[in-house]
Write a structure and sequence with these properties.
It is built from 6 helices and 12 strands. By secondary structure, the protein is of the alpha/beta class. Strand 10 and strand 11 form a beta hairpin.
Length: 195
Amino acid sequence: MKEVQIIDTGIANIASVKAAFDRLGCNTAITNNADVIRQSEYVVLPGVGSFGAGMRALNRFGLGQVIVDRITSNAPLLGICLGMQLLCSSSEETRGVNGLGIIDAEITRFPNSVRTPQHGWNRVSDGYAYFSNTYRLSTIPDGWDGELSFHGESFVAMLRRGTTLACQFHPELSGDWGKNILSEWLQCREGVSTC
């Protein structure tokens, strides 16, 4: 049985994420303990809310470097929505707050010409995913594989590198297509170069 630790930042959609992994037959737990997260087989960084609040929560529990170390060592990590954005260097949403810097890019707001937040279904590759976001990463960064979607202009919907998967959408709310995304990620393991 796969062991999945969900990081509890106090600002995340934890119940739906836990339920999705429970349905996949995983042994899931919720924690903000750095030692547990460091040693876990699979770790999920979910998030809802602002970039600044998310980084304050990670820093409060001493989790920033733990997450960076996991990604650097190719230990499986899944970032969902704000969890994906926190992997970046910064965000227009909260000026002066540094992100984790795994992705050397800034998160920016969607243009004023489109409705924000983007709430609802949008096409990603060969399926449809559920989004809820006002801010986004505009381009796929060097060294990452990714998928784009479109809301007024193209934006990054999903990134993969090694055993790290980052989704701007909510796979746990994206029906069977999202369930397949989670199942594929669960095939990742430390030491495997790509999933």
